[in-house]
Amino acid sequence: MAHQISLTELRELIKAGKNQTILSFISANHPVEVAELILQLSPEEAWHVLKQTDPHLSAEIFSHFDREYQIDMVDVLTRNEAAKLISEMPPDDRASLFKRMPEEKKEIVLPALARAEREDVRRLTSYAEETAGAVMTSDYATLSPIMTISQAIEHLREVAPDTETIYYAYVLGAHRKLNGFVSLKDLILARRDARVEQIMHGDVISARVDDDQEDVARRIQKYDLLALPVINKNGALVGIITHDDAIDIITQEHTEDMEKFMAISGSHADAMYMKTPVWEQFKNRFPWVIALAVLGLVSGFIVQRFEGLLVQFTILAAFMPMLADTGGNTGSQSATLVVRALALKEISPKDILRILAKEFQVAVMLAFLLGAIAFVRVMFFGDGTSIPDSFSLLRIGFAISIALGLQVITATLIGAILPLGAARMKWDPAIVASPALTTIVDITGLIIYFMTVKLLLDI
Amino acid sequence: MAHQISLTELRELIKAGKNQTILSFISANHPVEVAELILQLSPEEAWHVLKQTDPHLSAEIFSHFDREYQIDMVDVLTRNEAAKLISEMPPDDRASLFKRMPEEKKEIVLPALARAEREDVRRLTSYAEETAGAVMTSDYATLSPIMTISQAIEHLREVAPDTETIYYAYVLGAHRKLNGFVSLKDLILARRDARVEQIMHGDVISARVDDDQEDVARRIQKYDLLALPVINKNGALVGIITHDDAIDIITQEHTEDMEKFMAISGSHADAMYMKTPVWEQFKNRFPWVIALAVLGLVSGFIVQRFEGLLVQFTILAAFMPMLADTGGNTGSQSATLVVRALALKEISPKDILRILAKEFQVAVMLAFLLGAIAFVRVMFFGDGTSIPDSFSLLRIGFAISIALGLQVITATLIGAILPLGAARMKWDPAIVASPALTTIVDITGLIIYFMTVKLLLDI
Questions:
Q1: Chain B interface disruption, residue of A289, A345, A441, most B CBs within 10 A
Q2: pTM of the entire structure?
Q3: Where does A7-127 sit in CATH, by number?
């Protein structure tokens, strides 16, 4: 499975025009690995390599490139070469390529495709992003309910080369209505003269074209499916989503969640760290950082508002970082747990009272622990600081601990409420997690801190 | 697909002993859905339901329960009932159950299993957690290279009922050495009198028993496989890992990454938010929060060290929250990107210089922007604060902006260095992300802040 050839060697073969050797390298390796190596060549060199193989294999290797490289490569092909290559691609990859292609290039390539493929592209690209329709493929096997098992197996043999999977076949009635499905295992085990309708599973787990892609991927995961049929509002079969697409969707959603948690915007489905130029990185990262910094200015105003208190008790400034960090950490914890439980559909915004009750109890325990740490800290190391004579260190330590405890409880509850609120508004709960939350609980924390201390120290 | 029966109705059926109705409910629904409903019953009630079906189906439904409920249920069974149920489970689920079973219960159930199954459990539970060996199953189909295609298909028909998948079959030589594999599609398409060795793929993508489970799942994802064979150090086939296990492994790793990012410890493979008691939640959450709070005390000491400066310039306190938040946000961004690129094996610790060069450039751009915001903030809203007459607001604004800019640059670089360092030490890079990082850049940030301001204001 290791590359039997280095990039330099491959470049030399291309230069020397040793096409037979190139062809034998391609045949000896997995298309995924051939694609990985070729990706490092220029599009012209890559096309020289792909040209050596049959159209089916070259389209398969081409499908494993990232979309950007595919678009670069289409640029160096003639219109007919491009049409031939693209027409052999799996329909879902092909549709995804057309969606990312610049309009003017699309207008050149699309008319060169055969009519059936052109219409397939039009249909598959017509669904909204992130829906089942946008990720499904149209290469699936169908059977008629009145076929015998022998006929069905013979039919699957015939369509196998052009079909994404023959392990599941869908049984269609009039108007392509999805009546049932059979697995190839069912067919192999059945009597040869039985009819498909006698052995098919009538109660098919399916998705609607406008279902969210992550819900669909989770359904494939839940029921351990190889593929999930996608139907339109009339119950007609329009495509299937396969298990390998489900893994990719789940990985992609995870990446997006992680990025929302860490305040990076932009779509990174195909993005790679080293390949993304510095300027792109900056554009993806600055909006969040700036927005949060501007929001963070509010905490500056609050500190300014309580300037007098800080001048009198500089020890209060020493606890500001701990207050902010602790609020951020406890809030992030509850937000993370709630976001995940929402994503797994284990809880819904309706459960808000039960969730808050639970978070409140955890928060009170954490508040006692953290308050105690702060108290010890004040008593042991507060001696050096200048405090007005009329206040004892004990009283100040007590006030700071109470304030910190209240901050822990509020931050934890805010951490739970924000994602629930977002889910209620049909926004993505992950968007309000971590950095935005940290900045918000900084603000509430400072208010709680100064107010509590003022109140308890009676100033 | 909807439950055709409510929990209350099912309870009534159990109480009334209407076993025929229970059986028809089970047959009419998908095992996953039956399992979901039964999970809400008591283990005794659940067993009453399962008892109505054939052993194969009841074991399948039982396999869909979470491990804790499985253990609770084994408690209410006689030794023979338990052995019968467990022996019908898929081998990987069975091994996973035994791994989580208390020692004393294991010693009761294990001897009641048939010898072959007992040894299978012993073997599958002997591999280290999170390795390929620990997640593989032993129900796979094998063929001999000299079988004809007809014989091979006939053999797969025979083993189909007890095999996880017959869509991939592995071709074994002497000593179970993995020589190749064929898909059922290959077999269906081949001439009936050809030999398996003539059509098999010799260059099999496989895993070693001690490979990391995530690497293995990613391999299944990369090559779009239905299953991946696992071999021991002699090249003998010992198990397979299927596509549905790959999705579950990837989901589990996502969850663990997310939790590390958000400072929640504990293994949550089966944990559910609502089911986890408050006390458990507390135990999972407090160690991180406390550790970080203790670490955060260091920033308190730094602030105390510069108390004099704060008394003189209270405006400095107003920018402390923005300093901390901005450092945390920019540091988390670079850490997230580096952690992900490391996870995808796109970069390695060796690339540290190129990564730092890139992060440095992005950081400088961010530093200018954020410094400018801070400067504007000081100039426009700094009027109210008391500053010593010998210092102009302009000079203070300049000093604060420079300090903030330096904080952004250091935090970004620290955010990149920490995960790279962790990866170098073979630790999990995700562990140093977000909350730990935030606390560290708070500390470095305060030192930079006070030192810079002291230097630039010449005090």
A1: A289
A2: 0.73
A3: 1.25.60.10
